[in-house]
Design a protein that fits this description.
By secondary structure, the chain is of the alpha/beta class. The protein has helices spanning 15-29, 46-56, 71-81, 101-109, 127-144, 159-167, 175-181, 205-219, 222-251, 258-290, and strands at residues 2-8, 33-39, 60-65, 86-89, 114-119, 155-158, 186-191, 298-301. Bound molecules: uridine-5'-diphosphate and magnesium ion (MG).
Length: 316
């Protein structure tokens, strides 16, 4: 059986259509499947739509979060709760073409444990967005050897990979990178990003910046090394200035040294502050991880509605 994991946040217009489209494609393959919708604390009628579907269609299942935990949480909840021998993670807005699923299943049958769908182009994106995305991926690639430029969350994973991901103890996760970090035999197929089916993108600029920072700090210590580098550079600079002012002092032409003092104070101050900021950022991440809060909290699972009990999810 294959589990299709579909994170959904305020996707009321898309649920029914997405289920129908993906269901139709899978019916043709003859493979047994479950459509696992994870409602990431939507504020619209997304959950009602999912629930209505579960009544009509036995292969649809829904998980409802107690609030919005973010797409990462939704993906990991899906991985933890799915029953398939393999799972496909796909967006609810059909920007990830579901026609590729049979191809992914075929590659899985051939023995590939991860099938990644990579973007052949990055779709329509604004200039600013493209600039930030490029910078982010460049930092990630250069410093952590994870190439993400064209990667997406659209992937098929074998049960072995799902179990490996479920074993990871960390709370601040980056699915796109972790799924290649765990290794296994991987294949790639290309797809073109389709336009969003209905509704609008759930990412704000602020959300994206936090996302990028989080992931850079999860995968690399480069920013911290950067500070050391900057410190060294300014040390050389300071030695130069120091020698210069000493020479001036002994030759009796000192006096105007104030500019130098200002400069040194300002430079040293800024380097120290940047350094503290970066260290503080990593420390806040340590703090986040050490709290061992769950990545998500499930309030309803349509599979076992009666024995609603969250104790198991605490460990999630
Ligand atoms: N999503 C989610 N939680 C969030 C934001 C988004 O589960 O907090 C889901 C959303 O419903 C969609 C997928 O993640 O299925 C991708 O989101 P979106 O289409 O807004 O992102 P984009 O395609 O613009 O990158
Ligand atoms: Mg989208």
């Amino acid at each position: 059986m294959v589990s299709i994991i579909i994170p959904a946040y305020n996707e009321q217009e898309n649920i029914e259509n997405t289920a129908a489209v993906i269901g139709g494609i899978l019916d043709k393959t003859g493979e047994s499947y479950e459509l696992l919708f994870v409602d990431d604390g939507s504020k619209d009628a997304t959950w009602e739509k999912i629930e209505a579907l579960t009544g009509k269609n036995a292969s649809v299942r829904g998980l409802k979060f107690s609030r919005n935990f973010g797409k990462e949480g939704a993906i990991f909840a899906g991985l933890k709760n799915c029953f398939g021998d393999c799972a496909v993670v796909i967006d609810c807005d059909l920007q990830h073409p579901p026609e590729l699923i049979p191809q992914m299943l075929e590659l899985h049958r051939q023995g590939f444990e991860v099938v990644e769908a990579v973007k052949s182009d990055r779709g329509k994106e604004g200039f600013v967005y493209r600039f930030f995305a490029k910078t982010f991926y460049k930092i990630m690639r250069d410093s952590s050897n994870v190439d993400l430029d064209r990667a997406s969350d659209y992937k098929l994973m074998d049960r072995k990979v799902i179990n490996a991901l479920n074993e990871l103890p960390e709370r601040i996760t980056f699915f796109r990178a972790l799924s290649s970090w765990v290794g296994f035999r991987a294949a790639k197929i290309e797809f073109e990003v389709a336009p969003r089916n209905a509704g609008k993108s759930k990412w704000s600029f602020k959300k994206l910046m936090i996302f990028a920072l989080n992931n850079i700090t999860s995968f690399t210590n480069l920013p911290m090394q950067l500070v050391t580098g900057m410190g060294l550079l300014f040390l050389i600079f300071a030695v130069g200035i120091g020698i210069q002012s000493l020479v001036r002092f002994f030759s009796g032409t000192a006096q105007e040294g104030f500019t130098t003092v200002y400069m040194l104070v300002l430079l040293a101050g800024s380097v120290i502050m940047i350094g503290l900021g970066i260290i503080g950022y990593y420390m806040s991440k340590i703090y986040e991880e050490i709290k061992f809060r769950p990545r998500y909290i499930i309030s309803i699972d349509t599979k076992n509605r009666k024995e609603q009990d969250n104790t198991n999810d605490r460990k999630a």
